[in-house]
Amino acid sequence: MVPSHALADLALAPAGEARIEWADAQMPVLRRIRERFERERPLDGFRVAACLHVTAETANLVRTLQAGGAAVALCSANPLSTQDDVAAALVLEHGVEVRAIRGEDLDAYVEHVLALLAGEPQITIDDGADLLVSAHTAGGETLTRLIGGTEETTTGLVRLRRLQEAGTLACPVLAVNEARTERALNDRHGTGQSALDGIVRASNVLLAGHTLVVIGYGWAGQGVAERARGAGAAVIVCEIDPLRALEARMAGYEVMPALEAAERGDIFVTVTGSRRVLRGEHFERPSARYARWSSNMTSPAVGST
Predict the structure, then answer these.
(1) How many angstroms separate the first and last alpha carbons of the chain?
(2) What is the DSSP letter of 184?
């Protein structure tokens, strides 16, 4: 029996299954955990709702939870990252309730989150805290049946800590984002590569020879700066924390205020977790630079005849 679902096309399942198997070959640690879970069944009887990026890697996490005995329902934390073929394969090949369509609008996204909560989960796995925050908004049995959750992002943890400070957080939450492996491996190396990959795919720009400005020199900012330098870009770092700014300088990067870097940069990557880091005055600076460049090109050189 095909589980409840909201997908783009179930016919995409064969391609999705091939993608899941390929990813599984690159995830040996998770595969060993799944083998142990198959023997020990630590999640027998638990209902798990997950709001994550619906990708082949997430599919193998879902398979591992299933191997442990959990009934898993999945929706997308980001409609732009959803792999429709993977979503179809999870439904047809692995019996998972999946509600995820690439490019779905906000109304569909909210509907999918609420549908997962209607399944009475006991554990949530969040990327942005929408499941847990929605459960707190709903209240009642939706909230009281929860025994715990996990959160993967800094933004989500900020939202949940507000609930904690208000004394209304109803269950313990594992802050995955603060694990040492998450910071050192995923944030630095994973985000460093994927951020630049996204820039290159979207713009088709050649990084070599350009000046890339990284605003924020935390774990993810370090990764972006390293990968950009490796690709041949000149890298400028903007950082308000004095120690991190010093670390960037000692790593060989130019360090300066964002307004100054705005006159020199070609590509800008903000890695701060904050909004409005770049504002109107930053975008006006390059115009001033090009105006001076144009003036210099058209003015006669000193001593010319």
Answers:
(1) 87
(2) I
